[in-house]
Amino acid sequence: MCLSNQEHKDLIEYHQGSWTQLAKDPESWLRKAEALKNAADAARVSFWPKKRKHHDTKAAVADFFQGPVYMLLAGLAVETLIKGIIVAKNPEFVGKQWLSKKLTHHNLQELYRTASLREDNSRNDLLLRLQNYVENFGRYPVTKTKQDMEKMVRTRFAGQTDPDTVDRLWSFLFDKIQPYIQTDE
């Protein structure tokens, strides 16, 4: 699709005018997070066979090859949802043309703390696992460095993709952003 010069100018003007509004709107963060979560869930449903027995080879192969893609998308969804909560609580983290450095990284444990969510050590392992997939293992056949691979292997349940635990974290975060979402009622 080619834009005329005027259409291009209009598009730039629109985005310049709406950037801050979108960046400060928790609902825009929620909608993007939902799109990522829907993609993760669709990947899970289409790629994974149902486990028929405890040691199911097909399910194990799918978990090894497709699991990182699911965890990458799920990790990005969780990250985006947490950032939406942070923006709702701290709109000053959005400048006129920039996001605070508190929002421009993938350290999910730090983001979780920044969002001032209830400390729950049981979530730390999952947050670290998701972070590892977002930063490394979900995008590449190996981590970016051998050191990153060693860090990931040291993570409790490093290779485990546990959609039920991800779904529980998602539900918790979804409930936390709801008070900040404007309703038309």
**How far apart lie the N and C ends?**
38 Å
Please provide the count of β strands: 0
Can you summarize the main beta sheet? none
What is the overall pLDDT average?
Answer: 84
* Helix-and-strand structural type: mainly alpha
Q: Into which percent range does the helicity of residues fall? A: 55-70%
The fraction of residues assigned to DSSP E strands is under 5%
Can you describe this structure?
The chain is mostly helical. It has one domain. The chain is built from 7 helices and no strands. It has helices at 5-24, 26-47, 57-89, 108-114, 121-137, 146-154, 163-177. α2 (26-47) runs antiparallel to α3, α3 (57-89) packs parallel to α4 (108-114) and α3 crosses α5 (121-137). The longest helix has 33 residues, at 57-89. The radius of gyration is 19 Å and the shape is globular. The model has no long low-confidence stretch (mean pLDDT 84).
Provide the fold topology.
Layout lengths: L4 H20 L1 H22 L9 H33 L18 H7 L6 H17 L8 H9 L8 H15 L8
Helix pairs in contact: 2-3, 3-4, 3-5, 3-7
What characteristics describe this protein?
single chain, 185 residues, mainly alpha, 66% helix, globular
Outline of this structure?
The protein has 185 residues and is mainly alpha-helical.
